[in-house]
Design goal:
Radius of gyration: 20 Å
Bound molecules: S-adenosylmethionine
Catalytic activity: L-lysyl-[protein] + 3 S-adenosyl-L-methionine = N(6),N(6),N(6)-trimethyl-L-lysyl-[protein] + 3 S-adenosyl-L-homocysteine + 3 H(+)
CATH topology of the largest domain: Rossmann fold
Helix content: 25-40%
Oligomer: single chain
Number of helices: 9
Function: Methylates ribosomal protein L11.
Organism: Corallincola holothuriorum
Main location: cytoplasm
GO molecular function: protein-lysine N-methyltransferase activity
Distance between the termini: 56 Å
CATH superfamily of the largest domain: Vaccinia Virus protein VP39
Length: about 290
Amino acid sequence: MPWLQLRLNATADTAEKVGDLMSACGALSVTFLDSKDNPVFEPMPGETRLWGETDVMGLWDAEADMDIVVSYLQMHGGLTKGQRYKLEPLEDKDWEREWMDNFHPMQFGERLWICPSWRDAPAADAVNVILDPGLAFGTGTHPTTALCLQWLDSLDLTDKTVVDFGCGSGILAVAALKLGAKSAIGIDIDPQAILASRDNAERNGVSDKLSLYLPDEQPADLKADVVVANILAGPLRELAPLICRLPLPGGHLALSGVLESQAEEVASAYQSHINLDPICQKEEWARISGIAK
Ligand SMILES: C[S@@+](CC[C@H](N)C(=O)[O-])C[C@H]1O[C@@H](n2cnc3c(N)ncnc32)[C@H](O)[C@@H]1O
């Protein structure tokens, strides 16, 4: 089935509203893209977008009446009078082909590779995580995920327990298990993330070692040797009292999803419980890590 894609530019303040309006008039998916065309996070409710100019891209099936969609956006302030937008058909075949052709195995750190299922593993002795990119967050292409994968690769995870807080596709928990962790727990507020993580664990033969919880279901006394949380700066600040208690004494913690400009403030919420490493950066993103006191 061919698709129709509508793309328009929004600002930090309007992107979320434009996305909601697109969903309200039948978009099958809505993606936010930064200035380099990387997909960016959907903001948490009440959270301010921090990355300035954002393109919002909605996808409809070919039957959709896009005149109605455009009028609806104009009527509700998603498109201002005279604002330019791009509407183009996307052939299903081209779309999938392009996706598949462009998604190559990617290396993180020394041992770890993320490999789409339709490509051969790059090296027999590498640690290969098989993951199919989708609309869900967490394929390794985003710098915040990459920072966490590199960090996990740098640790000796043999027989360690791991918590992946904000597990998304489960990429970090699955990678940790394939790097030798004994067991992992993934936690996410999004039920779709729980399902995606389960699928990806099964695809990688580690589902028996991964437990998944919504936040209000997680064990009360949860502790682990290694804790990784790739969520945004706001939740990381708010959840600091909870996340600080997750690593065992001497255990490792990494926080990601934080812009470089927010790193000091987030780090200060953790420094009473964590001996912090120097902040590590990739593009405009920062990773905060350290060892629990
Ligand atoms: C940026 S994605 C990270 C996904 C994956 N861990 C990765 O590194 O690519 C953030 C995930 O955190 C989840 N999340 C956001 N706030 C959360 C919270 N307060 N508690 C648990 N999960 C949360 C979101 O639903 C989303 O799946």
